[in-house]
Write a structure and sequence with these properties.
This protein is α/β, with parallel strands linked by helices. The protein is built from ten helices and ten strands.
Length: about 300
């Protein structure tokens, strides 16, 4: 009897080793600001809890990693996973839409793609490239399915009181190399919100986390305020609201910095305070994608 038990134990152990351990890696851009990073890092526990609720125990580890600026970096997390025996990883980039970051930088960091120019640029920025034997599969960005459209729709619906007299302006990061994809996605989202709310005016602007808000963002918002009595400004940003941009952006005039929020005085303009997080649908989206990968 003991011999049979030992044989079974050995067979189970061999089977377990053959299957290996699976990890779920959630990758966000990262920021020098802890305020930006905190809601992103919190997703790790939320995903673990939701997987547990759904009785999914296939993932031996669930981790969040930041592409740049801060720890835990992708390199740090991959090293931890490898040390813990992970042999296969599903990596999900929490990026709004296809971009240089999601399609080139992240695969390069993970060792899945090599381009001398991209690698040198990343290394100059202090990013460590990963060297690992772990099998890695990279998933889609957040424009996959309707999650962003529905989150932004709910934000607008909570603020809208008189659709015929209102305008929507959507701000997003954009990407110079993927203008067509970003433009179409933002237009689709704007059209979707118009159709669901009865609001008739929509415009957009590409603003790189506040850097071009004073030019492109302000222009679109002021134009909308001339057309409608109320402007609702929302953003396609993971962990930052557009209100922060409006309050902290400025432009130089005659050697003096002029705060952009001064330009909105006397106008009925609402700036959304939060990004897509902490909406729980981001966590649900991550878990849904993980389940799809497991069942492929």
């Amino acid at each position: 009897m003991k011999k049979i038990f030992l044989i079974l134990l050995v067979l189970i152990s061999i089977n377990s080793l053959a299957q290996g351990k699976i990890g779920l890696l959630i990758i966000a851009h990262g920021s020098p600001s802890e305020q930006w990073n905190q809601p992103v890092l919190y997703i790790e526990n939320q995903v673990k809890e939701l997987l547990k609720t759904k009785n999914i125990s296939d993932f031996d580890e669930v981790r969040v990693a930041l592409m740049e600026f801060n720890e835990p970096s992708i390199s740090t997390v991959l090293k931890d996973m490898e040390n813990n025996g992970i042999t296969k990883i599903y990596a999900l980039p929490l990026f709004i839409a296809p971009s240089e970051h999601s399609l080139y930088d992240i695969p390069t960091i993970l060792g899945l793609y090599y381009d001398d120019g991209i690698t040198n640029k990343l290394e100059e920025e202090g990013t460590k490239m990963v060297e690992t034997k772990i099998k890695i599969t990279v998933g889609p960005s957040l424009n996959y399915k309707n999650i962003i459209k529905n989150i932004l729709l709910d934000k607008v619906s909570k603020i809208s009181t008189n659709p015929k007299e209102e305008a929507i302006v959507i701000l997003s990061h954009g990407d110079e190399n993927f203008k067509k994809i970003w433009g179409e996605f933002v237009d689709e989202t704007g059209g979707y919100i118009l159709g669901q709310t009865g609001i008739e005016y929509f415009d957009k602007a590409f603003v790189e986390v506040g850097q071009s808000f004073a030019i492109d963002g302000v222009k679109a918002i002021l134009k909308a305020s001339e057309k409608k009595k109320k402007v609702i400004v929302i953003g396609m940003y993971l962990s930052m609201g557009v209100k922060n941009m409006a309050n902290n952006s400025g432009y130089l005039m005659m050697g003096h910095t002029i705060k952009t929020n001064k330009m909105f005085e006397g106008k009925n303009i609402y700036f959304e305070e939060e990004g897509l997080l902490p909406d729980k649908r981001i966590t649900e989206w991550v878990v849904d994608r993980a389940i799809e990968w497991l069942n492929k």
